[in-house]
Amino acid sequence: MNVNREAGEGVVPVPIYTVEAQGLSMQVSPRRGDSLTILQGVDFQAEQGRMTGIVGPSGSGKSTLLYCLAGLEKASAGRVSLLGQEITGMGLSQLTRFRRKHLGFVFQSYNLISSMTVEENLALPFTLRGQRLPRERASQMLDYFGLLPQRKQSVTQLSGGEQQRVALARVLLSDADIVFADEPTGALDQEAGAKVIEILRSLVAGGNKTVVLVTHSSQVADQCDRVVEVVDGRIAQHRPQGKVLV
C-alpha cells in the first residue's frame, strides 16, 4: 500500500513492499520417517523499484526461499503476499493465472523451449494468456538485445549468453511486475553476466517494478539495492548496497 507520512515540511514516502513473507518454513522428508528443515520462520520483504539480492552458502535455503516467494514451491508454514494479494491459499489454476499476469522468471537454465524459435519463445507467455505477440514491440526488444537477426533461429543455435538475453527479453516484453531470478549470471562469462545485471537494473529504474534474485557472486550482490543473507534456513542479516561479503 502506498502511504505518505508527514515529516516536518516535507512528505516522506513509505516503501511499497510488493513481496512480503511471514514465518516461512519448509520441511521435506527425503526418506520415510526423516525430516529435513530447509527454511525456519523466515520473514522477508522486497520493495517496489528496488533490486533485492538473496545470498548465502550452498545449501542455506536461499533458492528454496526464492521459489516459495514466487509461488513455485509451497512452504510448509507461513504466508506470502505479492502485490498485496496473499498467494498462500490460492488454488493451482488461480495461482497459475496470477503468475502469468504479474510475474517473470529468469533462471540459470533459461526455461526456453528448445523446439521453438527465438520469436516463438517470446510469444509463449502471450499464447498462454490467449493473446497475440505484439510483433512491433518484439522486434524492438530483439533489436535492443542484439538478437533481431536470430529471431527465426532455434534457441539451440544460440550461445548461453544469447539464450539468457532471450529469457530476459521475454520477461521485459511480458511487462512483469515482479521478476524472480535464480543465479541469472551463473552460467555466463563476465561480460555477458554484466549485461544481464545491467538489464535487471534497468527494470527497477522506472520505479514500478521489483526484482528479487539469488546469487553467489559478490559483484552481482554489490549491484543490488538491498541484500539479505540466508544461513541455515534463517535470515542472518540485511545489508545495504556496497557492503556485501559472500
Give the SSE map.
Layout: E1 4-7, E2 10-13, E3 17-28, E4 36-47, E5 51-55, H1 62-69, E6 77-82, E7 85-86, H2 92-102, E8 103-107, H3 118-128, H4 135-144, H5 160-174, E9 178-182, H6 190-205, E10 210-214, H7 218-222, E11 226-231, E12 234-240
Parallel strand pairs: 5-10, 5-11, 8-9, 9-10
Antiparallel strand pairs: 1-2, 3-4, 3-6, 6-7, 11-12
Helix pairs in contact: 3-5, 4-5, 5-6
Q: Main attributes?
A:
globular, four-stranded antiparallel β-sheet, Rossmann fold, nucleotide-binding, alpha/beta, disordered N terminus, transport, single chain, ATP-binding, 246 residues, six-stranded mixed β-sheet
Structure commentary:
This protein has one domain (12-28, 37-240): Rossmann fold (3-Layer(aba) Sandwich), CATH 3.40.50. The protein is of the alpha/beta class. Helix 3 packs parallel to helix 5. A six-stranded mixed beta sheet has the order 8-9-10-5-11-12, sandwiched between helices. A four-stranded antiparallel beta sheet has the order 4-3-6-7, covered by helices on one side. The chain has seven helices and twelve strands.
Shape: globular
Distance from first to last alpha carbon: 33 Å
Given the structure, what is the number of helices? 7
Strand order of the largest sheet: 8-9-10-5-11-12
Summarize the biggest pleated sheet: 6 strands, mixed
Average residue-wise pLDDT: 87
CATH topology: Rossmann fold
Order of helices and strands: EEEEEHEEHEHHHEHEHEE
Name the CATH architecture.
Answer: 3-Layer(aba) Sandwich
